[in-house]
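User: Last request for today: this protein with fructose -6-phosphate, please.
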Amino acid sequence: MSERPEGPRLLVARDGDELASLAADVVQDGLREAPAPRLGLATGGSVAGLYRELIRRHQRDEISFGAVQAFLLDEYLGLPAGHPKAYRSVIRRLLVDHVDFAPGAVVGPDPSAPDLAAESARYEGMLAGGMDLQILGIGRNGHIAFNEPGSSLTGTTRVVSISEATRRDNARFFDHPGDVPRRAITQGIGSILRARRLLLVATGESKAAALSAALEGPVSVAVPASALQLHDHVAVVADRAAASALRGCRHPH
Ligand code: F6R
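Assistant: Here's the final one, the structure of the complex with fructose -6-phosphate:
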């Protein structure tokens, strides 16, 4: 594990267990201070190990989600209600069904709302005040949530098109590549930056270029995750492969 003196706090893990453990520590620290903490949840492969570790800690009575209110970052549009690949279903399987959230404590944008602009505004209203801790992954093209390159760095919850690059990356979660939805409802970068603390989890060599552009390149709409440089309390937990292109991190061990 190595740490940087300034900017985002970078923690480079030796293996998946260490990655999950470091990320879970950040989550526990982020939730500790608030009496009714607000937790922002990302979905996806990068955060699966973190959620498994949070479940383990819950089973050992080290963490409770009983007072936590959780908010999904984003949701696909166009999947039938209850579809197993809808983020609402995925997050249930990855975390929610295995810990002690109160009924109704985990919410997301409603993809079946008849008026999606109104639904976006309603959800953005629920996010007002921001998360105590927001968990994020990063796309290979530098996206965070479904804020694809070109997204405003101050944007709010809205309906977006999913880029072809991201649809291809997400095809691994679906039976057929053509099944990946073309649109989503997503928190904006402005919504995300309101969090008191941000945790970005990045795994695998395929994320190395995006992570380096996000943390060491210019802040630019071309790399949505570069907006993290605008925030004072960011922890980045990466494995060695994802950290391999960072100038400040040539030899993490
Ligand atoms: C998911 C989300 C996405 C993912 C990103 C990385 O809620 O907001 O931005 O975090 O696409 O996905 P994985 O971790 O599957 O590589």
